[in-house]
Amino acid sequence: MQLQQKDKALKKQVKGRQSSYQESTFDFEKWLPYLFISPALVFIAGFLFYPLGNVFYYSLQNYNANTPFYNGFAGLDNFIRILTQDPQFYASLWISGKWVGSQVSLQVIFGMSIALILNQKFKFRTFFRAAAFTPWAISGVLTSVMWSLMYNEHMGVINDLFLKLGIIDYKEAWIADLDTVFPAVVVAELWRGIPFFAITLLSALQSIPDELYEAAKVDGAGRIKTFIHITLPQLKNTLVLTTLLRCVWEYNNVDLIFNLTGGGPAHHTTTLSMYVAELAIRENNFGYGSAITVISFTILLVFVVTYLKISRMERGAEV
Fold first, then answer.
1. 3-class SS at 73?
2. Class for domain 87-318, per CATH?
3. Dist CA 316 CA 319 (whole Å)
4. Bridge partners of 64?
5. Are 287 and 62 in contact (CB under 8 A)?
6. Separation CA 32–CA 201 (nearest Å)
7. Of 104, 107, 126, 246, which residue is the least packed, with the fewest Cβ within 10 Å?
8. Beta bridge partners of 256
9. How far, in Å, CA of 147 to CA of 142, rounded?
10. Using one digit for the tens of pLDDT, what is the confidence trace for 146-181?
11. Contact between 240 and 61 (Cβ < 8 Å)
């Protein structure tokens, strides 16, 4: 009897140790994924959340490096001044809307056209596909330098070409004229942005099964009906994602405009992001610029959430 009792007690002790070991092992396995992603989380926190928090902090401050004796807590004064006393804010917001609308719509149209062409079978197709991606690989600074030389009034190739073709009668200062500066900058950014849509839509086109097109051909559908009822629905998810990303990127675009026109002439190309850069870099008014950044961030966040909700509603209605 005593031996049996000792044996049972020993078994209970062994089971207790095994259960405690299993619990500790379970806890380790539970936290192991978080351990693996912790370096990335630290990186994101250091390079994203910390600067973002600083922007929100400085938006509530009077922080101007040119007048440090006025620096201090301002509360909502910066926001009240922006919304009630700053006409340039609304002008820049309107230009940003025109910029994003024109860029994204035209890039989608031309990018779709190029993707459809590159999806066909013809000689040297691989070469043309690589060439179509080249403008996207060039930095905004190099793009702005190249287009500023092309737009140059005295030695630009665009004036020379248009004069020979009889399109213009005299040399035009494309990025100095109030009537032509905005379209000129739009064209320069289109040259850089169209390849993004061309390549992404081309990859989506290649994933569409050929059986769908063969069935449409058997049913007697033409090219237009096939494009509307087969190609576009198959590209919808790609179009939603790429259009959203491009809206965000173009809304925050600074490098090309800053280097090509500097926001001028007479603020005709000063988008909201350019206005923030002008306040922060040229005027050192970091508090006021941060307040505009917070408003800009809020506008962009509302747009993204609304855009995604509308796309989900349309997807649910189709189902």
1. strand
2. mainly alpha
3. 5
4. 285
5. yes
6. 38
7. 126
8. none
9. 9
10. 999 999 988 889 999 989 888 888 888 899 889 999
11. no
